[in-house]
Amino acid sequence: LQNMKMVPVPEKAYGTFFEGDCYIILHTKRTSRGSAVDLHYWIGKDSSQDEQGAVALYVTQLDNALRGNPVQHREVEGHESETFQSYFRNGIIYKKGGVASGFKHVETNMYNIKRLLHVKGKKHVSATEVALSWDSFNKGDVFLLDLGKVLIQWNGPNCSIAEKSRGLALARSIRDSERGGRAQIGIIDNEKDSPDLMQIMKMVLGERRGELREAIPDAKADELQKANVRLYHVYEKDNDLVVQEIATRPLTQDLLQHEDCYILDQGGFKIYVWRGKASSLEEKKTAFTRAVGFIQAKGYPSSTNIEVINDGAESAMFKQLFQRWTEKDETQGLGKVYTTGKIAKVEQVKFDTTQLHARPELAAEQRMVDDASGEIEVWRIEDLQMQPVNPKTYGQFYGGDCYLVLYTYLRSGRPHYVLYMWQGRHASVDEITACALNAIELDKKHGDEAVQVRVTMGKEPTHFLAIFKGKLVIYEGGTSRAQKSTPEPAIRLFQVRGTDEMNTKATEVPARASSLNSSDVFLLTTSQVCYLWCGKGCSGDEREMAKMVADIVSKRDKHTILEGQEPAEFWEALGGKAPYASEKRFQEQITHYQPRLFECSNQTGRFIMTEVVGFCQEDLDEDDVMLLDTWEEIFLWVGKASNTYERNEAIASAKEYLKTHPAGRDLATPIILVKQGYEPLNFTGWFNAWDPYKW
């Protein structure tokens, strides 16, 4: 903003901001549903009140011109949102002064420069101009002494590899974009080893007296704070602004009425304003002013992030704060179409597993590592040790036990491993712990290369179903051990779901009429006979799969009966008739969830996650533990050089993440541990153009 007018910034200078100015950033990205538009206004810490007012006004006008499609953000220097930071992959540079003070964004004589930049951050890098003095330095950050023709990168002794490499990327980007590639970069990683560069630094900064300061860690919001979401209704009453709290987490979508405006406060970490389609123009106009007023009333810092969102054009960040978010006519995954309001059974789409290697994104979407043709070995935890299970009974799991399933498959000629830890609902705490410890031992035997997957009974992932080729049976209680303490029940009822060998499982349910459901096939086993009960909504494929399972659960004669034509003995076995679910099954549905990547840090005893928006493989650093949330599963990626504490805390962090997630997530979501260099296809498929040889 120059003299209160919008002036375009030359592309060369993108990412460089004068602290005395305000800026507007328009970002458009193609998505599967058209395009996503974000509009940010950025406030420099030395900009005037007038400029701040003007820039907010321009954003409102731009939003109108773009028919209310953009998500609008207010950004304050040094406290930018993760979305904003994702646009400037090499980092953001803050310059002293402003356009008005005679500086121009691109100057011809770029060589008579003398400045010191303090570089901070690992995932999101920013560089601030600081005083040319040794007092500006500390032990934990990277500093760039920019002398025009020479750039000296000084690495603090406590810097991580990632911080050093991000610092270098920034130095190179200054050289290439501001100096046309004509500048030299020198690096001081250890002062003793670089006497010549130190000589130059001393000429500019003088001799250093005294010790360097320790680095000051950034104050960041932790997950507990972010989980504290509150929704407020905002309206005018007799010329007064009324803000009324209406709900806390978990929030549901129906709380948002199209006639009104709402403020969603995410623990003071970020403020969202949602503007209903049918709310008045006046209400829409004052969205930012209200949010700023709200921040002041709450005593939050003035740098708090604000995002203004229009009804129907919500950002992914906003939607994930709700328990469930449904879009109109949403197409999901591969050719599944949902229409809100209509309840229908969703047909499973068959997909061609031979395509998995050619299209890793398919592996990710279908949650499949391979075509399930590998080898399996199964162990039961008995007396806290691993006991091999008889291969004849592979696929039969009892709720009183814990199991380890090792799946081995070949990829480009060498073995890869997936290790499933299946936890029965009635297993003891000791057994669950022993299961995890034995998994670590088994993983060690395979060179620490296995992908470990925690499976909670009833929440088995797709690939787990596929490797048992339609023979997966889950018994509610009991055990598969030789000496059984309790006799098996005489009458059992199993619900069978699935249309082929890749997606079928049978689950024991209470043997009562109320357990039935018209959408499915059920097997009722008694001491004389095994009934195959076919609900009105089941398909021929489902009936075929149920016949296969029937031979596993019962050696008796099989009788197929159709819903509505049951013999009296059938109801007797179930203890009499009773009402049961007869509507067609409604697929539990979630919007097409955008995967999210976070850096996890548990250093300070507080659990802190930094989101990386628009992520790619480059964002996985050797010294990181990263969490990838794809909604149906949680991946933990463990870098080779990550510290032991964070590695050991990884699973606990993932559980903590699910627990504190504002949307009230299912705590039984599978958690998958992936190690650097041994990433399976269903992980790499979420990244664009994954390079298997990068490391």
UniProtKB/TrEMBL annotation:
GO terms for biological process: actin filament severing; actin polymerization or depolymerization; barbed-end actin filament capping. Its main location: cytoplasm. The keyword Transcription regulation does not apply. SMART domains: GEL. Signal peptide: none annotated. GO terms for cellular component: actin cytoskeleton; cytoplasm. Keywords: Actin capping, Actin-binding, Calcium, Cytoplasm, Cytoskeleton, Repeat. Gene3D superfamilies: Severin. It is found in: Cytoplasm, Cytoskeleton. InterPro entries: ADF-H/Gelsolin-like_dom_sf, Gelsolin-like_dom, Gelsolin-like_dom_sf, Villin/Gelsolin. Residues 4-84, 125-197, 247-319, 386-465, 504-571, 607-683 form the Gelsolin-like domain. One of its GO terms (molecular function) is actin filament binding. Belongs to the villin/gelsolin family. This is Villin-1.
